[in-house]
Structure formats: C-alpha cells, structure tokens
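Hi everyone, sorry if this is the wrong subforum. Our group has a chain we'd like a structural model of before ordering constructs, and none of us has done structure prediction before. Sequence below.
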Amino acid sequence: MSGLFNPTGLVRPLAHRRLGRLWSNDPVAAQARLLRRLVERAQDTRFGRDHGFDRVRTIEDFQAAVPVRAYEAFWQDYWQERFPVLDNVSWPGRVPFFAVTSGTTSGRTKYIPLTRATLQQNHRTALDMLGAHLVATPGSRLFAGRSFFLGGSTALVEEAPGVWSGDLSGIAAKSAPRWMRPLTYPPPDVALMDDWDAKLETLAQGLAGRRITALSGVPAWVLVLFDRLDGLYERWPLPDLELLIHGGVAWAPYAERFKGYLGRSGAKTREVYPASEGFIAFQDRGPGEGLLLSYDTGLFFEFVPTEELDLENPTRHWLATVEAGVDYAVVLTSPSGLFSYVLGDTVSFLETRPPRLRITGRTAYMLSAFGEHLIQSELDAAVTAAVEAGGAQLTEYVAGPVLPVRGLGHHIIYVETGSPTTLDAAEVAGRIDQRLSELNDDYAAHRQGDVGMGAPEVRLLPPGTCTAWLRREGKLGGQHKVPRVIADAERFAEAAAAIDAASTEAADHT
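Answer:
Right subforum, don't worry. Here is the predicted structure as tokens:
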C-alpha cells in the first residue's frame, strides 16, 4: 500500500493533542461539570421532577436524591408503561432507539434507551481509541484502508413512528453519516443479514481484494472468521490489517490462538470496554496497563464496592474518592436518561490520575452459591492456566453451581479447547481448584477439609460445542457471547442439559 494516499498523517497531530489532554486534565473536575449538565438537561422530565433535580447542586445532593437502580427497577418504574414512546420520561424529547440485549445472565431481553447524544459519546470515545493507536504506532496507515465491523444484523424493528430497536451495531449503522460508508466494511446489504452462517460466508468471500486495516468484534467470532479465511484463501486476505479491536470478554483465553493470525500482518490489538449504555473505556497504552476511563465525553460514573451492591444504601464513590485495587460495581449516569444505573460490570482501578481500570467481571457473574464469592477474573485466570498447563488452548468455558441433594454442593466447569486434546478432566479440575484457593480466601475456606463445598468437576467438550449451543439458542454471532458463569443453579441446570446435547452434535461433526 506504499503508493496509496495515506491521510493518517494528517490526523496524528490531533490525536497527540487529544491524548495529551486526557492524560493531563483533571478528571474529577470534568466529571463534576458533566453531572451538573446532565441534571440540568433532565430537570423538567418526569424523572427529574420526581427526584428534585431543580435543587441538585453537588455530587452529594445528587446521591442523596437518586438511589442506585438496576435495569429492572428503571423498566418497571419509568419505561415499561410508556414503551416504546418515551417522551420526556427520563430524558428530554423522544428516545429514538432501544438497544436490545439478549440478557445472557438474567435470561430476559432488555431494551436499553439510546439517544443521539449517547451515540455521539460512543463516536467520540471510539475516535479517542483510534487516536491512542496512532500515537503508539508512528508508521500507521490506518486510514488508508477500511474498518471491518464484525457485528450482528443491522436490521432494526420500527417499534413506533421514529422509534427503532435492535442490535447496537444496527443502531450505529443507521445513525452513521453517509461519508463513512466507503471507509467501512461490510456493505449495508451484507450487514442486514441475520443468518449468521450465511453472513460469515458472504463476509469471507467479500474480503478478496479489499484493504482492511482495522477489524473489531467479539474474539470468539473473529476466530471463527479467521479459521474460515484460512481454509478459503491460499494467501491470507488481510495483509494490511494493523489493528484488531476487541472487547466484551476477557482476552487472555484467546491470546495464544490469535498469535499466528495476527503475526501474518503484524497487527496490534487494542482492548475496549463498550456497553449498550455507552462507551466506557479504552486501552490507551500497552497491553496490561489498563483502560482509560472516558471521563469527559458524556458519561458520569459512580463506583460501589461489590460487597455492598445489595445493600439498601451502599457506599457510592466517584473519581474523587475511588481507590486502586478495590473491586467496584460500575454505576452509570448518561444522556439517555439513565441515572445511577447499575451497569452490571465490576472493575478495579490500576491508577486514578488519569483513571485507568481493568474489567474484573460481571455483577451477575459472581459465583457464590456456597459463600465462595468468586468473580469472573479469578475464574478466567484459573481455568486458562489449568488448560494451558495441560498443553491445550482454551476456547470457552461455562461454570455454574450444583446444589447438594446429599452431601456437598460443587461447581461444574465445562471446558472447550481449540482442537481435540488428551487433557485429563480430573487433573484440570485439580489445577483449577488449587489456583482458585490461591486467588480467593473465601473459596479456600469453603474448600478446606471438603467441609463447605466439594471439589469442582470439569467436563471436557469437543471443539465446536459452544457454537452449536449458541446456534440451538438462536444466539449465534454478532454481539452474542458465551455466558461463562451462570450463577443461578436452576438456569445452570437448563444450560447444562443444552450443552450436553450440543456436545453430542459437535462430536458427530468432529
């Protein structure tokens, strides 16, 4: 591509200035200003009147007036009665979009209000993330090619005149300016496809001759695409790929499998923390150095210690009071009319000036059927290390509790590897048990003497099982992810039966 015009050099000075401001500005002052603006905008809405927004002047006023709420409370108290037409309910004007989430941890479909102001917040944070790549990559030619978004179907449902619902990627596509289309892939007709297998084949076939410089998607589905490309083309069709953007799940279990593919073009990776409710953070430095919180683009953040989340009046921190090394549940206020909304994720700060964090899991992904209080990052670390110690590469895992009928309850952990292996399930279970005992004192205490909780059981799955399972559930591709932890014993039992059936299907195809 050396002969192509490369506009990247024109953007790089802007990226340097912007990243410099993010690293040097006062995030506490920025957050305080931002909350005041959000409260002022919403004070004449039903929510604003109910909570006395006209009298809110400080962070303390706001926290005294607005309780922490999960989605279900917002839905029941404010959105359900008026859905799909939310006029001046919790944000001024009409909400034009609802991001539909599959509800993998709760089993319920959710409709997340999404305004154009929040879409703009997404766009600004995405540009900051790309700017971080330019700053770190002096020879970048990022804008000399197209960006490939491996998402779900962009087809939307018109719920009411001017009100649309669907996958976040579809909402982003509908609201994107026309000038962006020549810079992105796939084209609209392919993006609309909802048959994931057919869409993946069309995407793979359509890459011939295209210069793709950036690719973003859920790691599991990007790997499926890469495996298909490897079998389809004699020469690697992504020689210009320089940036793989990933998020939504922990990267470590996939890192080893990606090495060979990314090495073909020298592509770098950059982690992002997106959510249906807003773009939370992005990797601004090297791997393992944390994600920079997007503190000045439109979202106000509070952080509740995870052990207090179920309390009636939990401690509510913000950037002025957070501490490094503490596990917090993220609580969000946004220009879509979400106020002190429990996002469902848990994070821990590596540093606070500027605020850099790592994602530790989901609030619903805590396994504590027996008081063991395991968070997802601990399970990720233990399962990944146990599988790799046996000479295999982890593809996916699903863990959940089995309540005692007689004797002790325990965990079952389904483990899928990238290729058939000679792993011994009992040995893997022993390594997981040992590592979790090292990482978590509560787990160790419950395992001591086999008194409070039995040893974990590992069930090995043939390659392709989790894909077959999601296909059975109608959740194949796009933003759908394998739920690695199912904390509810009844739901886990249902999932286990479906996984066992999918395992038989995958074995027949191996």
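For your construct planning: The chain is about 35% helix and 20% strand. The radius of gyration is 23 Å.
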